[in-house]
Design a protein that fits this description.
434 residues; mainly beta; Jelly Rolls; 4-stranded antiparallel β-sheet; 8 helices; globular
């Protein structure tokens, strides 16, 4: 008589037709799947499902009614997101991680992955460990001499119960599905050697009231070295969810000639993607968003995402393709800063044959001196109420002159009762024609 299957977690080796080893790891509900590769190798998850597909797996000691439903499997990319690129990774098979696809059924997590040779990226950009700052504290991003910060992801909220949990009541740690991405850290820190950023609701909003949150930033330190050769025409490609990096040499600026988001062939960005996500090759849309954000800059990062471009073809795995040139301006870029007190207006103005490029715009208050004349002390105390805005860039980029007004009706009110001001960092660049 064949006995029940007795295991909490097991790892098997499978050999595919190409001869490479595909590893299968199974973890019963409540236990941990252990993914592990050898020295010089990293994990690459091809599939992860949570639920139940048969009556034998993880069945020991379980009543029949908890293993009878074998059509309750849910695919998830969470394991790939957390484990890909690591040598070793543990992942708990739990409803708090994956949700509950079938209540009353005893489930298991099944992961298929391969161990791939660790390869160095084309550009030297050593990945630093994620920087975490608990709510109310400051994240400190630091690179070495002749290096600059390049932020890849920044999230604010809570994704587990362990991080930033010391001394906190259980009720403030239970919600682990309240994480929101933000581009503010990248906007403020990219290109700098050192940067501090406060983990605070005034900066990021409050994605989950009553939960104690934290800021998690992943970034690399990139060398301030010039490429050996800058081609006259260049291109950048980013698969959906990744970042396209546009780079020019010293004394040159980006000029985007075209940017498309969607899919035009079945080969690009196809690795480990099911055939159904690659079939539609007639779903490409042009966009001027990359040009508006990147033109006139020496380097620029731009995320390939539906939240940025919209979704031209639901269910298709897309990519961003950018064509650009690196051009030498007629004269050097001129940097300037404009400050507009609340309720006042101002005008950004560049010279003839020049265009405005806004690198940063914040509305609120960061010190007690700016725009303080004639104001009571109570309106100047709060210096932690500054919010970034892309409205100035959208209105002014590419124009020679642009009028602004610093009001709550335009930018919202980040701190009621505080007298605020608008601060804009921008540059004037020589516009290119012909």
């Amino acid at each position: 008589m064949l006995g029940s299957t007795f295991f909490l977690a097991v790892t098997c080796l499978l050999i595919n037709s190409a001869g490479s080893q595909k590893i299968q790891s199974v973890a019963c509900e409540g236990s941990e799947a252990q993914l592990k590769c050898g020295k010089g190798q990293v994990i690459s998850v091809s599939r992860a499902t949570y639920g139940r597909l048969d009556r034998n797996t993880c069945s020991s000691g379980k009543p029949a009614n908890q293993i009878s439903n074998i059509k309750c499997s849910r695919s998830s990319d969470k394991v790939a997101e957390r484990c890909n690129g690591k040598q070793q990774c543990d992942f708990k098979a739990d409803n708090s991680e994956f949700g509950d696809p079938c209540q009353g059924t005893y489930k298991y997590l099944e992961v298929e992955y391969t161990c791939e040779k660790k390869t160095e990226p084309e550009r030297s950009s050593p990945q630093k460990s994620p920087t975490v700052a608990c709510e109310g504290s400051v994240a400190q991003l630091q690179c070495g001499k002749d290096e600059f910060i390049s932020v890849s992801t920044a999230t604010y909220g809570r994704r587990d119960q362990k991080t930033c949990s010391a001394g906190r009541p259980e009720g403030q740690l239970q919600n682990i599905k309240c994480s929101s991405s933000s581009g503010k850290v990248a906007e403020r820190c990219n290109g700098k050697q050192q940067c501090d950023f406060k983990a605070d609701n005034s900066e990021f909003g409050d994605p989950c009231q009553g939960t104690y949150k934290y800021l998690e930033v992943e970034y690399t330190c990139e060398k301030k070295t010039e490429p050996e050769c800058i081609s006259q025409k260049d291109s950048a490609l980013a698969c959906e969810g990744r970042v396209a990096k546009l780079r020019c040499g010293k004394g040159e600026v980006i000029s985007v000639s075209g940017a498309t988001y969607g899919r035009r062939d079945q080969k690009t960005c196809s690795i480990r993607r099911p055939e159904g996500q690659l079939k539609n090759t007639q779903c490409s849309m042009s966009s001027d968003k990359v040009a508006k954000s990147c033109n006139g800059r020496r380097w620029c990062n731009f995320k390939a995402s539906n939240s940025v471009f919209g979704d031209p073809c639901v269910g298709t795995y897309k990519y961003l393709e950018v064509e650009y040139t690196c051009e030498v301006p007629e004269r050097r870029l001129q940097n300037a800063t404009a400050v507009v007190c609340e309720g006042k207006g101002a005008k950004l103005l560049c010279g003839k044959g020049e265009g405005i490029y806004v690198s940063r715009a914040t509305y609120g208050r960061r010190d007690q001196k700016t725009c303080s004349t004639g104001r009571p002390e109570g309106q100047l105390k709060n210096t932690q109420c500054s919010s970034s805005s892309d409205k100035v860039a959208k209105r002014c980029n590419g124009r020679r002159a642009c009028k602004l007004r610093a009001t709550n009706s335009v930018f919202g009110d980040p701190c009621v009762g505080t007298y605020k001001y608008l601060e804009v960092d921008y540059l004037c660049y020589a516009t290119m024609t012909g």
